[in-house]
Structure formats: structure tokens, C-alpha cells
Design goal:
The complex is a heterodimer.
Chain A: E1 7-9, H1 14-24, E2 28-31, H2 37-42, E3 50-53, E4 63-65, E5 69-73, H3 78-83, H4 85-90, H5 92-98, H6 104-109, H7 112-118, H8 124-131, E6 135-140, E7 143-148, E8 153-155, E9 158-159, E10 166-173, E11 182-186, E12 196-202, E13 210-215, E14 222-223, H9 225-230, H10 237-250, H11 256-274
Parallel strand pairs in A: 1-3, 2-3
Antiparallel strand pairs in A: 4-5, 5-10, 6-7, 6-10, 8-9, 11-12, 12-13, 13-14
Chain B: H1 16-22, E1 38-44, E2 50-56, H2 58-61, E3 66-71, H3 72-76, E4 104-105, E5 111-117, H4 120-128, E6 131-136, H5 143-148, E7 160-168, H6 171-176, E8 180-188, E9 200-206, E10 211-216, H7 221-232, E11 239-242, H8 258-270, E12 274-277, H9 280-286, E13 293-301, E14 307-317, H10 330-338, E15 347-355, H11 370-388, H12 392-399, E16 408-409, E17 415-416, H13 421-430, H14 434-446, E18 450-464, H15 466-470, E19 480-486, E20 492-496, H16 505-517, E21 524-528, H17 545-572, E22 579-582, E23 585-588, E24 594-597, H18 598-606, E25 621-626, E26 633-647, E27 652-663, H19 670-690, E28 720-725, H20 742-759, E29 768-769, H21 773-784, H22 788-796
Parallel strand pairs in B: 1-12, 8-29, 10-11, 14-15, 20-21, 27-28
Antiparallel strand pairs in B: 1-5, 2-4, 2-6, 3-5, 7-15, 8-13, 9-10, 9-12, 13-14, 16-17, 18-26, 19-20, 19-25, 22-23, 23-24, 26-27
Helix pairs in contact in B: 10-11, 11-20, 16-17, 17-18, 19-20
The chains are: A alpha+beta, B alpha+beta.
The structure holds flavin-adenine dinucleotide.
Chain lengths: 275, 798
């Protein structure tokens, strides 16, 4: 379990990092907290020729807020988000979800940008960002763009990010005072990746948009139209029948039945919480 | 525990070694410095079963820093093949193994090519460039598939390595006359002992001396010395095996592994020290696995709950080869010996079949066979009680072998002596109010939540005696020895054959020797794990560190005390019987007055012998041994209780309480004892709920890391309550019976019974371990389509 040979770069600022990325493209990988990338490299499941360590780039760190949204730098660690008063007030769902991410040691290193870029279908942060209509900020040497979260996840661990782009941060709308949410996940042991999770976040920003996300089921986290349609109404049994069909469509292997059962249970309980 | 305050036996002592380990000063095999060492890595078969048509090794050899790239045939030139046959089991068949596959790989993960390089990273670079032209063959992963499939090893004729039947009484008649017969098929997933320190070996070969010095993370240095010498054709007294700190072993480090023998051969071939440290991925692929059984069993009861008969058919899949040198049969043979062992069962028939399949070898893991036997027997008892409408605890009381009833020739052909099942059950329930729990359970049921209570009683074959391996033909001994020496400083140093991988055996030896000699605990030092420095003996296996290892030390310590008193008598012109030793001081037996110190005797015995009467030869280094000579197994027993809650919507099982009552005989160190039981319980709870190495039907490995293989974490485990019954074993001076495996023996069965108790109102039942949410949910779903009552009738009938 020793990684294949690679060249190591540690740029001190974002332009240098972007220049390196522009130069090496697909042969390069960005190293953030390393909590996912290092094991993958150690097992030689991924073999970047160039490793671009962004940990010294201060402009990627920290949490800022304006009137409508909170912006979290890509290199902000989970632990920092958990301790942030801004997050506690404006995006409490994120902090609640991160408590389910692994354990202290991993949360001390793991970053929100790394989690979004990795796009693990069982990960909490991508699912929360999807539930809160976040926007991902990506930059390349050519410039910056904002990607609505609904078009960010392409498939199993695949995203809209281009080879020469660095994820610099994520903008999450602040919640309206009246907003409520429900976050439920089921993991085998505390801190494990979720077997499945359900997030309900109706009217997060005050606008009447119902968002419901299922994660840990299929190739990416996904919005459930069955649950979104049902929120705020009296729930009929056919909601869960429709939800089970959505699960069946998302899961192709023999776990589909099991996933459908636990997602249904989590959804029922989440609905009950908001009722 | 003890009245005399200076008595060491019975006192909780922190392991001196633990201080060093938690301070980060462990000296594991990988910490041993070896200048010029090469790092060994293995290209392992990616296929469960495939022919090697051609190897292309030149690109790997061309990498700078690569020292050796060797095929199976290259390695085979330096050793003999080996086969894990146990001669006690007549008719047992096992194929020859070589350290590295030649022509064909029979399990995914089997070593195929060995690389030695300046660093492990370079060795792995070389692995990347090895090309093997494979011809995949059909692989058989499941026990049933292997049974039906063509012989993996043609020369064996079929895949059945052993087929044996144990019979007592007349089963057919007993079943015909039964009020209720319950039946089930139990499936157990493959799992393994996950050691914090992976398997590691550092071999140094000297061609001039023909000597081999091996540091190895292993339980049995003397056994390894014998095996390396024999298989490599070296003079045995030129082979030395040292087991430094070992970070957990659990049976996983008790056998010979091909990759470890190959590492010794690499040291010989390259003339350089050779180091191999398994990484986590190859640990899952190549460590000894255990517990892959499918057991079909029936139990017949009379109206009053008396057990009339038990039958079982155990299909035990052991991988492609039988483990060497002890063979893989142990687990199945224990299933036949121990299922239902706490009870008087007049009619019994057990068939065990050991089958080969395309998976890595299965062997000994903490509590060999016991958890299977316990789960099968105890689950059937509960099922019978339920069918008869009786209290499962009352059914156990009715059937269990009475305390003090003398040696019992069991249905499983074992002689069970000194059992204390009644006492253990009483102790267990003294701290748990069953009526209260049942009330709580009923109330919970009203609210739609499920609580369950499970009990599992077990008889344990704690210590193994001379006959079992004596008959095997393998270089395995049930004997332990200890050399105890009084040093000139008055301190005592012990060189023990029993080894310590974290259990605290050396602490227990230190305590027992302190008492036996009459010195303070801090004045005793224990050295173990070195085949040259310590007398030959078994090392660590079964639960015999205390009953055999410490017993030998006590005998040596007492002999040394006698010698100290003899010398003191000669110095003081007194009879030894007129004196006693305590805490390093020799005193008058009547007045207690101080006469001389052990240190003064030591100085005379080592430096001033001229002061002794003419003709006196001091003998201050003494060795004593102990082996249970005629007893196949030292038996003891225990019982465990678990309560659980089940989330019926998620299938999640939560552990609420876990309680153990156990008879370990004389207690040497209460804290070490409790922690042995607790550690064992945790591994049993892992088996109950989490741990499984998953394979495809063809033997393809699906579990690579600790993300897929879930070990129980502190967050999932409740406090484990431990209470003891202490009936000293009358056959030894010390009277300890053993405790290392007790926790593992019964934990999974208690949880299985608790889960089925919780599921009973739904008419659901599970009988496959681990009890994953998926399985629990599937059982609930299956039951909800059948009316509960119909289900219990159908299960109860035959
Ligand atoms: C034992 C364990 C348990 C875990 N449990 C959970 C869990 O329960 N839930 C959960 O969500 N996660 C879990 N994780 C994963 C953890 O959250 C990771 O930290 C996270 O997924 C990746 O973040 P990182 O900063 O470590 O990224 P890295 O590992 O450094 O990188 C991950 C990937 O993202 C890319 N990347 C990183 N940052 C950027 C960027 N700014 N721009 C472009 N690409 C980038 C990298 O190139 C790489 O491909 C666990 C990890 C471990 C080791």
C-alpha cells in the first residue's frame, strides 16, 4: 500500500495552483484534506503523476456571509464548519449533517471542497448542498464560474468540474427564520458512510420551494419528486410507492429492496418530524 | 480476594508492557532495524481459480532497486511442500501446499510472484509490471457449490477433506417419541481476527553458519522454529524465532503462511535480511479466516422440555488448503464435540464435513468452533421452549448438567469435568431481573418497539491436553515450561515458553512467580517469545496461558524457593522447614523474625560459594514444565445474557446490556481476567452484528478494507458486565482454568437469541450471522406475509 510515484507541488496561491493545473490537466490531482485521496493513492486505485497540494492557499479557507448567502471556502475543514456561529445561525442543517461525517480525526482534516469534488453518493455535504440549492464556485486559469448544484453531480464520483478547474468554494443561501428541515440518516456504526439518508428542506430561503434529497442510494444524491410533491400536504400511501419506484430506478443491484425499505422508513420519520 | 495483603495472585496489576505500548514504545517486528534489508511484496492471484500459463517478469526485474523477482517454482527449489493433515482424524485429506503458487492459483490472494526491493514502494512498482497469462478456471466459493463441484485438487478425488459422524444413543426412536421437534439451518459468515499489527516477518539468513534468525509477529516461536528448519532443510538448533511485541493475534498468527516462509527463502536467496509486512488489503485476502459453516440441526423435546435428541449436519468450508501445521479441522470437530454440551442429551448424531473451496484457508480464530456450537444449540433450545410454551431459562435449568455431578461423558464424546453451570446461571441472574425485563418488553411492544432477551450457555474446552496434538503428527505441544532464575541482585528473571500478544500472560506469570518464590512483583521480570532464549513450549493458543503457562511458572518458582531455603538453611545452620520466605526476606517459621534476605542468599549463591559447606552446588536457575498429560481438554463453562432493541423500520439491532458469568477457576489478576472476557465478547458481538468477509459465488473477494469489513466500535458496544464463579481446577497447583475465549464463545449466540426473542411477536426469525439490517428486514418482511401463528406451528412440527 504505497502510492505510485508522483511529483509533488505546493503552490502558495491560487493563480499558481491554477497554472499548474492548466499545465498538467488530467495528469494532475488536487490534494485537500487527503482523507479520500490518500487511501485511493495508497491502494494505487488512482495514480496522479502530479499532486497539487492546496493546503497552503489561504484564499480557499474560511466562511463569509452576505445578506443572502454564506460562502464557504473549499479548504474549510469540517471541524471549522461545526464550530462556526455563522453556520449555526444561517445553515444549521449543514452543521447537523457534518456531525454524522466520520470521526474527529477525519473531520479535522477533511474539507467541504474535497467532499463536493469527490461526490461520494453516501456523503452528507453534497446531499445538504443539493437540498439547499447551493452554488459551487469553480475557477480555472481562464476565469471563474458558478455552477448551480442541480447540474453539478454527473454520476458516480463524477462532477461538472473541468480538469483545469479548482473548486474554490460553495455559496449556500441563508435560511429564512421560519424555515425548518429534517435530516435523517442510517449508518451501520456511528460515523460510517450512510446506508441511506433523507433530507427535507421545505422553503429554506423563504421562497416556496420544496426540496427533498435522498443520499446513499444510487450513483449520486438525488432529489425525490415524490417527497417534494408530498411536503406540506396530507401524505397518502402512494407517495411511498412512488418513492420506492424512484429508489428502484436509482439502484441497480440486489440491494434495491433493502434500500427501498430503509429510505421509506427514513422518509416517513422525516415527514413526521416536519408535520 | 486474598486475606494476606502481600499476596500477588488475586490482585489487579496493570501490565508493565502496556505502559510501554501506550507510550508509543512498542517494539514490533517492523520496528526491528535490519541494515540492508530488502522489502518483500507479493503479486497475488486476482482470480479465485486460474491456471498460470506464462509469467512475464523481465520488466519488473529491470526496475532500479529491485533485488529479486521470483516465481513459485524458484521459491519451491528451497523448501519442501507441506500439508495440513491431523492424524487423529482418520481419513482426512489435504493437498500439498507450496509457499508461492506453481502452475495454478486456487484462491484469490494466493501469492504467485515474490518481489524483493530496496523499498516497499519499489517492490510495489515492480508488482505493477508483472504480467501473468491467466487461464481462469471455474471457482467454487460457497460450501454447497464446493461440495457438488469437481475436485479442486485432482489427487484428492473430491472436495471433501473430512467426513465424520459422532453418534450417541438412538436418534430415530427419540425423535419419533418427541412432543416437539425444532429444526433450522444456520449460516455463519466468514470472518477473521483483525489484528492492529498486521502479519510481519523479518528473516536473516547466514550462509556460513547455515543459521536463520527470524523476528515474526507470531504466537508460537518454538513451533515456527521447528517448521522453518524442517521445510528449509536447516539444522533446527541453528534456527531461532523471536516474537517481539505482537499487536494482537487471536489465532491468526498461529500457523505457517506461505508468504512468511517465502520471506525466509528470499533472505537465503538474496543473502540480505528480508522484511515482509502485510498491508490491510492483503490481510483481508490472506489472513486465516474462520467460521464459514452451514449447520442443519434438529432438537427433539418431551412435553416437559427435556431434550430427547439432537442432530446436526455441519458443512464447513475451509478454503483451498488445510492450514499448516494444525490443519483446519479443529473448528468442525469442536462443533461436533460441543453443540448442546451444557445439557444431558441421550441421543445425538453429528455429521461434520470439511470441504475445500476456492477461498483462502480457514483455521483457528479465538474460540475455535465454540461460537458455532453455542449458537446452534442455544438457538434450538429457545426455539423448543417457544414451541412448548415454556420459559427458556427453565428449560435450560431442567436439562443442564448438574454442578458436582462428577465427570460427564458427553454426547459429543468429550469428558466434561467440574462443570458449574448451575452456579453460573445463578450468578448471571443474580444481577438481572428477568421478570422486570419481560414487563418492560411487553410495554415496549404496546408502543410498537421490539425488545429481546437472549441467553447462551456454553461449555468450553479451555486448555488442550497432550493427546490432541500428540496424535496429530504436527510439531505442536500442549506443554509449557518456565525457567526461573534468582539473579545475584536478588531479582528473579523468568524465561517462559508461553507468549503474550496483549493478554497479559507475562504479567500473570510475574504475579504467580512472585508468590511462588516469595518476592515482590516488581522484583520479577518475565521474558518470552524467543525460541532460543526460552525453553520449548506451546506459546499461545487455546485458553491455556494461565492453566499451563502460569502453572509451569508456579512449579518452577516453588522449586526455586525450595532451593533458596536449602541454601539459607546451609548458611544459617537451620532446617528449611523452620523458615519461610516473604517479599524477599527469609523468616523464622515460628517467630516471624527476619533471618536473612533473598539477596544475601543470591550473593552467596552466585559470588561467594566458598562460604557454603563443602560439596554444595547452588542451583539458582531452575526449569519446570507442565502438560495436562492424559486429559484431551480442560473443560469449563459460562453463560452470557444479551438484551437488544430492534428498529423494525431499519432492521437495526442495538445492544442494550451484555452480561457474562464465567468460571475461570483461580483468579490470578481480576482486571486482566475481566478484560479478557470483555475483549472476547466484543469479538463475538462483531460476529453477531457486523463482521463478514464477503465473497462472490465463484470465490471473488468483495471485502478489501475496514470500510467494508465492520469491526465493532466503542460506540456500538454496551458496558459488558462480568461476574465470576471460581472453582479451582483440582489437577493443578494453581487451579486456573482459562478465560481468553469464553467471551467469544457465547456472545453471538446470546445476541442471536435476543434478536429472535424480539422478533418472535412478528413471527419472524433469523438464523444467519451477522445479523445485518438487510437480513433482519428481510425476515420481518417474510414474516408479515405469513400469519405469525402458522409460522410457529410450521417451525415446531417436522
Ligand atoms: C474513515 C473515514 C470515514 C469517512 N466517513 C465519511 C462519512 O461518514 N461521510 C462523508 O461524507 N465522508 C466521509 N469520509 C470522507 C471524508 O469526508 C473526506 O474528507 C472527503 O470526502 C474528502 O475531503 P478531503 O478534503 O479529505 O479531500 P481529498 O481526499 O484531499 O480529495 C478528494 C478528491 O477531491 C479532489 N479535490 C479536493 N479538493 C478539491 C478542490 N478544492 N478542487 C477540486 N478538486 C478537489 C481531490 O483531487 C480528490 O479527487 C470518511 C473518510 C474516512 C477516512
Amino acid at each position: 500500500m504505497k502510492p505510485a510515484r508522483f511529483n509533488y507541488h505546493r503552490p502558495g496561491n491560487l493563480p499558481d495552483a491554477l497554472a499548474l493545473l492548466a499545465e498538467h490537466g488530467g495528469a494532475a490531482r488536487v490534494l485537500a484534506g487527503g482523507q479520500s485521496l490518500m487511501p485511493l493513492m495508497a491502494m494505487r486505485l488512482t495514480r496522479p503523476e502530479e499532486l497539487i497540494d492546496i493546503n497552503r492557499i489561504d484564499e480557499l479557507k474560511g466562511i463569509t456571509a452576505d445578506d443572502t448567502a454564506v460562502t464557504i471556502g473549499a479548504l474549510t475543514r469540517y471541524t471549522e464548519i461545526l464550530r462556526s456561529e455563522v453556520i449555526a445561525a444561517a445553515v444549521p442543517l449543514l452543521a447537523e449533517a457534518i456531525r454524522h461525517v466520520a470521526h474527529h480525526a477525519i473531520r479535522n482534516r477533511g474539507t467541504i471542497g474535497g467532499s463536493l469534488a469527490l461526490a461520494d453518493p453516501s456523503a452528507e455535504t453534497p446531499a445538504v448542498c443539493l437540498a439547499l440549492a447551493a452554488r459551487v464556485i469553480a475557477r480555472s486559469a481562464a476565469g471563474e464560474r458558478e455552477i448551480p448544484i442541480d447540474s453539478f453531480f454527473h454520476g458516480l464520483m463524477a462532477t461538472e468540474l473541468a480538469e483545469d478547474e479548482i473548486l474554490v468554494g460553495v455559496r449556500i443561501p441563508k435560511r429564512a427564520a421560519s424555515a425548518r428541515h429534517a435530516f435523517l440518516e442510517f449508518a451501520r456504526r456511528r460515523g460510517d458512510f450512510a446506508q441511506a439518508g433523507v433530507i427535507l428542506a421545505p422553503g429554506h430561503t423563504g421562497v416556496p420551494e420544496n426540496r427533498a434529497v435522498v443520499f446513499g442510494v444510487g450513483a449520486t444524491a438525488w432529489r425525490s419528486s415524490a417527497l417534494e410533491g408530498a411536503m406540506g400536504r396530507n401524505i397518502a400511501d402512494d407517495v411511498y410507492a412512488a418513492l420506492r419506484l424512484e429508489v428502484a430506478a436509482a439502484v441497480e443491484d440486489e440491494t434495491a429492496d433493502y434500500k427501498a425499505r430503509i429510505v421509506t422508513t427514513l422518509a416517513e420519520r422525516a415527514m413526521a418530524r416536519l408535520a | 480476594m486474598s486475606a494476606a495483603t502481600d499476596q500477588e495472585v488475586g490482585r489487579s496489576r496493570v501490565r508493565p508492557r502496556a505502559r510501554r505500548l501506550v507510550a508509543g514504545r512498542g517494539r514490533y517486528t517492523d520496528d526491528i532495524a535490519a541494515p540492508r534489508a530488502v522489502h518483500v511484496a507479493f503479486y497475488r492471484s486476482p482470480h479465485p481459480h486460474a491456471r498460470i500459463k506464462a509469467l512475464e517478469l523481465s520488466a519488473a526485474r529491470a526496475i532500479p532497486g529491485v533485488v529479486l523477482v521470483a516465481s513459485g517454482a524458484d521459491i519451491a527449489r528451497h523448501c519442501k511442500p507441506f500439508a495440513g493433515v491431523h492424524r487423529l482424524f482418520i481419513g482426512m485429506k489435504a493437498a500439498d501446499q507450496l509457499p508461492v503458487a506453481v502452475d495454478r492459483a486456487c484462491w484469490q490472494g494466493e501469492p504467485v510472484v515474490v518481489v524483493a526491493a530496496e523499498t516497499r514502494a519499489i517492490a510495489e512498482d515492480a508488482l505493477d509490471l508483472i504480467e501473468v497469462d491467466w487461464e481462469p478456471l471455474e471457482g467454487f466459493g460457497t460450501p454447497e457449490g464446493a461440495l457438488a463441484g469437481p475436485a479442486i485438487h485432482e489427487q484428492l478425488g473430491d472436495n471433501i477433506g473430512f467426513d465424520g459422524i459422532t453418534t450417541t444413543g438412538d436418534v430415530a426412536t427419540a425423535i419419533a417419541g418427541a412432543a416437539v421437534v425444532v429444526e433450522d439451518t444456520f449460516r455463519f459468515g466468514r470472518h477473521t481476527g483483525v489484528c492492529l499489527e498486521a502479519r510481519s516477518i523479518l528473516a536473516v539468513y547466514d550462509p556460513q553458519e547455515q543459521s536463520l534468525v527470524v523476528h515474526e509477529s507470531h504466537q508460537c516461536p518454538a513451533q515456527q522454529q521447528a517448521i522453518f528448519a524442517d521445510l528449509m532443510g536447516l539444522p533446527e538448533h541453528r534456527v531461532r524465532v523471536i516474537c517481539p511485541d505482537v499487536g494482537g493475534a487471536f489465532g491468526i498468527k498461529q500457523q505457517l503462511y506461505g508468504d512468511e516462509l517465502a520471506t525466509c527463502i528470499v533472505a537465503k536467496m538474496t543473502g540480505r535480511p528480508a522484511l515482509f509486512v502485510a498491508d490491510r488489503v492483503e490481510s483481508f485476502a490472506s489472513d486465516i479466516h474462520a467460521r464459514e459453516h452451514v449447520v442443519k440441526a434438529r432438537m427433539a423435546f418431551a412435553h416437559d422440555g427435556s431434550i430427547l435428541a439432537l442432530t446436526l449436519d455441519d458443512l464447513f468450508a475451509v478454503g483451498a488448503y488445510s492450514q499448516y501445521p494444525r490443519s483446519s479441522i479443529g473448528e468442525a470437530s469442536h462443533v461436533a464435540r460441543l453443540t448442546g454440551a451444557p445439557y444431558r442429551i441421550p441421543a445425538y448424531q453429528a455429521r461434520v464435513r470439511m470441504v475445500y473451496q476456492n477461498k483462502p484457508p480457514v483455521g483457528h480464530y479465538r474460540a475455535v468452533g465454540h461460537p458455532i456450537a453455542c449458537a446452534v444449540g442455544e438457538s434450538l433450545i429457545d426455539q423448543g421452549a417457544r414451541a412448548l410454551g415454556l420459559d427458556p431459562i427453565a428449560v435450560r435449568r431442567l436439562n443442564q448438567i448438574r454442578d458436582g455431578s462428577g465427570p460427564h461423558a458427553s454426547h459429543g464424546a468429550a469428558v466434561l469435568e467440574g462443570l458449574t453451570l448451575d452456579a453460573c446461571l445463578d450468578r448471571l441472574l443474580a444481577g438481572f431481573d428477568v421478570t422486570d425485563f419481560r414487563r418492560e418488553q411487553a410495554a415496549a411492544r404496546q408502543r410498537g418497539s421490539l425488545l429481546g432477551l437472549g441467553i447462551a450457555s456454553f461449555v468450553e474446552l479451555a486448555g488442550t491436553g497432550a493427546p490432541y496434538y500428540g496424535e496429530s503428527g504436527a510439531p505442536v505441544t500442549a506443554q509449557e515450561a518456565c525457567l526461573v532464575r534468582l539473579e545475584p541482585s536478588g531479582h528473579v528473571r523468568c524465561q517462559a515458553s508461553a507468549t503474550d500478544q496483549g493478554q497479559g500472560t507475562d504479567t500473570a506469570i510475574g504475579q504467580a512467580v512472585a508468590d511462588a518464590v516469595g518476592v515482590a512483583f516488581d522484583d520479577v521480570e518475565v521474558v518470552s517469545g524467543d525460541s532460543a532464549a526460552c525453553p520449548p513450549g506451546g506459546g499461545a493458543w487455546a485458553s491455556r496461558g494461565a492453566s499451563a503457562g502460569v502453572e509451569a511458572a508456579v512449579r518452577a518458582g516453588r522449586a526455586l524457593r525450595a532451593e533458596i531455603l536449602r541454601l539459607a538453611g546451609l548458611i544459617l545452620q537451620r532446617k528449611p522447614e523452620q523458615m519461610y520466605v516473604r517479599r524477599g526476606v527469609i523468616r523464622d517459621a515460628v517467630t516471624g523474625a527476619e533471618l536473612i534476605t533473598i539477596r544475601e542468599v543470591a550473593v552467596i549463591g552466585h559470588y561467594r560459594q566458598h562460604l557454603l559447606p563443602p560439596g554444595t552446588q547452588p542451583d539458582l536457575s531452575l526449569v519446570r514444565s507442565y502438560v495436562p498429560q492424559n486429559q484431551a481438554f480442560l473443560t469449563t463453562n459460562g453463560i452470557q445474557l444479551a438484551t437488544v432493541s430492534i428498529d423494525p423500520g431499519l432492521g437495526e439491532v442495538r445492544l442494550l446490556r451484555h452480561r457474562v458469568a464465567h468460571d475461570s477457576g483461580t483468579v490470578i489478576n481480576p482486571q486482566l481476567l475481566d478484560e479478557q472476557i470483555r475483549g472476547g465478547v466484543v469479538q463475538g458481538l462483531g460476529a453477531a452484528l457486523f463482521e463478514e468477509i464477503r465473497y462472490g459465488e465463484d470465490g471473488t473477494l468483495g471485502t478489501g478494507t475496514l470500510m467494508d469489513y465492520l469491526v465493532p466500535l466503542a460506540t456500538e458496544i454496551p458496558d459488558i458486565e462480568v461476574v465470576h464463579v471460581t472453582t479451582a481446577d483440582p489437577s493443578t497447583t494453581l487451579g486456573a482454568k482459562g478465560a481468553g475465549e469464553a467471551g467469544t464463545a457465547g456472545a453471538a449466540a446470546a445476541v442471536l437469541n435476543a434478536v429472535n426473542d424480539a422478533l418472535a411477536p412478528l413471527g419472524a426469525r433469523v438464523s444467519a450471522l451477522p445479523l445485518t439490517p438487510e437480513r433482519v428486514l428481510a425476515a420481518i418482511a417474510a414474516a408479515s406475509s405469513v400469519p405469525a401463528e402458522a409460522l410457529s406451528r410450521q417451525k415446531a412440527g417436522t
